[in-house]
Amino acid sequence: MTMSESNKCFNTSAPKQPYRPVVIVHGLMTGDVSTMQHLAARIAKLHPGTKTYVIDRFCGLASLEPLWRQTKKLADDLLRICSLHPEGVHVIGYSQGGLIARGMIENYGNEHNVRTFVSLSSPQGGQYGAECFTKMFPALTARTAYELFYTRLGQRALSVANYWYDPRHRDLYLKYSAYLAVIDNVKQQNSSDFNLKKNTNNDNDLRTMMVNTSTAEISNITNVAETYDDSSQMIEARVTRAIAAVCAATAEIAERHNDDNSDANSVQLSSVKVTSVDVDTVMAIDSAYDNYYAEYSKNSDPNIKKLGLTRLQHLVLIGGPDDGVISPWQSSQFAVLDSSGKLVPMRERRQDDIYSDNDPIGLHQLDMTDRLVEYTVPGVNHHEWHHNEKVLRECIIGWLD
């Protein structure tokens, strides 16, 4: 559906009725809670009396925390809000926040009462573009990112690794992805996903990196991590260490590619020798969290995930060709690229994928019952979606009953 077509659907001048509350989940590096307050204020203006909840956890640097950590904590908030409003709530997830929102809706499918989920320029099909991350990780490229992101260290270090989808390495994606492949229900999560001590061929870096750190230091780091301290200061400290580790690893990967003048496929992270204490710190902290998140993963029931989405009254997918960050931009509507770089739209992802006959997360069911709505909106930059008045009026507000 285009924006011009959507004008026929909604008449925002109609008499206003009592509206259900709206929960807004921010995106990656969107600063403090004030960045989403504009959207909340405009919803309340267009729908007077609407109660809005703007999630205020994992803002700024903390938004780089691995997505399972964010999903678990934010789900506590969402379920508490749901309990306060038995009439049901709506959820808007912007950018990375759309993936977190979907994770919450799926994993608590028999507990939430979300009626409409608006995915606002969120990479539901995954991200395969590194340009937006180069300020933070100058050596990161789409061609080589898989060498770090498709390891247990990568998956446990930063959120962006959790939804990285490299179409040339789907086998590694299915093997290592600890979030996107799991919420797509194409992979069952198990406790080994959280076990950094378990080595495989692509994880030898965990041994080669584990140097220059004393047993006493590792013990001290682990003791701190085991407090499960999720204060903003502790989260930012963890993320800062993770950023340093990823920067060191990506720099080593880039240097080796330059030295060897070799193809990306021939360079394995097992040959990267990063000796930064920051890498060791990340590993120790993540190891300390293993039991906690492995316990959480026991709730990852495939049937519950499908129930979570199919209970929705509407799933609204919004994206556009001028986004400039989500890559491919059609990922906002569950599209992916194949190994040759050809776009595979959501409805063609049928072979052991999200739109297959067994309908792993219920997209086909939503689609066939006219509850899956797509908007393609040109002329909107990624950082403008939650401020764009036309998008709000013509693509969002009419679904918030």
TrEMBL record:
It comes from the Eukaryota. GO terms for molecular function: thiolester hydrolase activity. Coiled coil: none annotated. The keyword Zinc does not apply. GO terms for cellular component: lysosome. InterPro entries: AB_hydrolase_fold. It holds the Pfam family Palm_thioest. Its EC number is 3.1.2.2. It catalyses: S-hexadecanoyl-N-acetylcysteamine + H2O = N-acetylcysteamine + hexadecanoate + H(+). Gene3D superfamilies: alpha/beta hydrolase. Keywords: Glycoprotein, Hydrolase, Lysosome, Signal. It is found in: Lysosome. Signal peptide: none annotated. Catalyzes the cleavage of thioester bonds from S-palmitoyl-CoA or S-palmitoyl-N-acetylcysteamine (unbranched structures) but does not have activity against palmitoylcysteine or palmitoylated proteins, branched structures or bulky head groups. Conversely, hydrolyzes both long and short chain fatty acyl-CoA substrate. Belongs to the palmitoyl-protein thioesterase family. This is palmitoyl-CoA hydrolase.
